[in-house]
Specification:
The chain is mostly helical. Helices cover 71% and strands 0% of the residues. The chain has eleven helices and no strands. It has helices spanning 2-12, 15-47, 56-67, 76-102, 109-139, 157-168, 177-182, 185-201, 211-241, 256-270, 279-308. The longest helix has 33 residues, at 15-47.
Length: 317
Amino acid sequence: METAASFKIGDVFTYESLIHAVAGSLGSVTAMTVFYPLDSARLRLQVDEKRKAKWTPAVLAEIIREEGLLAPYRGWFPVICSLCCSNFVYFYTFNSVKACWLRGHRSTPGKDLVVGIIAGVVNVLVTTPLWVVNTRLKLQGAKFRNSDIKPTHYSGILDAFRQILFSEGLPALWNGTLPSLLLVLNPALQFMVYEGLKRELRRGASGEFSSLEVFVIGAIAKAVATTATYPLQTVQSILRFGQHRHSKESRIMGSLRSIFYLWREQVRKHGIVGLFKGLEAKLLQTVLTAALMFLLYEKMTAATFRIMGLRRTLSRR
């Protein structure tokens, strides 16, 4: 009994899991910094209903013209802090849970899927307050076409936490949690599409793919997963921003009622396309960011393992 318990604890607290977590967080921070303006354009399209510009280049041009050259990078620091913490939690949980479950045995797509969902749920519950704060800071000072949006005045991350706690209460820091939990399906769906395409396109005895083929398959999988879950991402952004207006009966932050209410409002005002506002920017940003992140992640983990002389037992899929 003690041996099993110590084995589990040893699997959770390992240098290998730490390396994966640090490499994943640094890779994501670098990739997001490069493509951050695309995410800024996507967020404006999601929350500012009266903006006339609908395409990413036009939105970015408007932001720069009206708010300055650095405006597309507004809120960069809190986003990077949140992303760094979020990916550290995700990668560490993913590799630790996988080590505890497999215990040296070979993994399967089904097991990877379950481990990914567990890591996603842990990540959402732990880091949602950071994402709520960074959404507010990212949109602070923006020039909105929607006059119903009230301006906010936060001096930084800690001040935003303090103001939200005192004016809206502790639950407000977990606004959009339910959509975020449902969006754990995004990486799961991406993984299933990726594996399915590889099986369909596999050729030759070895079944090897070139780097370009793997990149294209991964990009298609990410695009499918993002498009399928994008209506939830739109609701998630609106809930985190905390500026939506609806009846008290429906005002249950992060609840299914709020999700369906916001979906109905988007469809009523803009049609079905209202659920996909900013999708172009999101697809461009998420595919490029994911590709760069995983490239940096793999390079950093490989280099670190070589330097430390550790074996990459968990990375062999």
